[in-house]
Amino acid sequence: MNDPEFSTLLDKYLNQMLSEEEFVVFQEVLKSSAERRRQLICHSQLDAGLMEVGGTLEVKESSPVESHAGKNVSSSVVSWLAVAAAVAVSTLTFFALALREDTEPMAHGFAVLTRTVNPVWKSEVFEVGSIVPKGSLQLESGSLQVEFFGGATLVMEGPGNLEIRSASEAFCHSGKLRASVPPAARGFVIDTPSGKVVDLGTEFGLEVGDGGVPEIHVFEGEVEIHESGGEVQTFYGGEAGKGAARFPADVGSFLSTADLNEEVMESVESKFSMWRRFSRELSRDERLIAYFPMENPDLSRRRLFNEAPTGSEMDGAIVGANRVEGRWAGVGKGAVEFTPTGSRVRLAIPGEYGSLTFACWVRIDSLDRQYNGLYLADNYQPGECHWQLQKDGRILFSFLHSPKVNFKSLSPVVWDISKSGQWLHLAVTLDLEKQKVTHYANGEIIFEHPIGSKYQIAKTRFGSGELGNWGFPNAPDNEWFAIRNLNGRIDEFAIFSEALDPAEILEMYTIGNPQ
Amino acid sequence: MSLESENNDYEQFVKLFSKHEPALRRFVRSLVYSWDDVDDVMQNTGLVLWRKFSDFDPDTSFMNWASVVARFEVLSWKRDRARDRHVFDDDLISMLAEETDAECEKLILHRRALDGCLEKLPEDLRRVVVAAYEPGVKLNEVAERIGSSATGFYKSLRRTRESLMACIEEEVASQEGRAR
Question: What's the predicted TM-score (pTM) here?
Answer without folding.
Answer: 0.55
